[in-house]
Specification:
This protein is of the alpha+beta class. The chain has three helices and eleven strands. It is rod-shaped.
Length: 182
Amino acid sequence: MKGLKRLLFAGMICAGLSSLGLAQTVTGGLDGRITDSAKAAVPNAQVVAIDPVAGVERTSRTNDAGYFSIAFVPVGTYDVTVTMKGFATLVAKGNEVTLNKTTTLNLVLQVSAVQESEHRRQGGGGPAGFRPRLPLHRDLLSGVPVESDIGAEQLYALERQLRFIQRYGDPRGRVYDGRHRE
């Protein structure tokens, strides 16, 4: 009877220890923020973490503030790829995910060369909300250099109008530099 009690006790110890082994996690996490070169958040960018050795892939998207989080990532070394329309694809290689820890990545996307050349060709456009700040050489009345939020197309139209006024005078009879032009 004593031997049966010992056997039962040993079985309970083994069962208890095996349940502890099942409760352990073998994952970590990845999180971070995706910004552009001006440090503005990049919302809705796709973030893909791939462990090339194990073939594990996890995907997430950034929120409106540019943050992403991928939980329950198996331990390993991951290549993180970030893609967003209008930006060059970014690949951050060799990111270690360790047991019960979250690896934080703060990555900066660059405007793609195709997008940049398209922006220059069209005289505007670019990533959502992007408007160039273009210097105007001198304020018409004071002669002080100024900056403007107008786009390139509006700047070229304004430049054409000013050349016309300089050549032929203002058709509305306005006064410039204290003189009336007719």
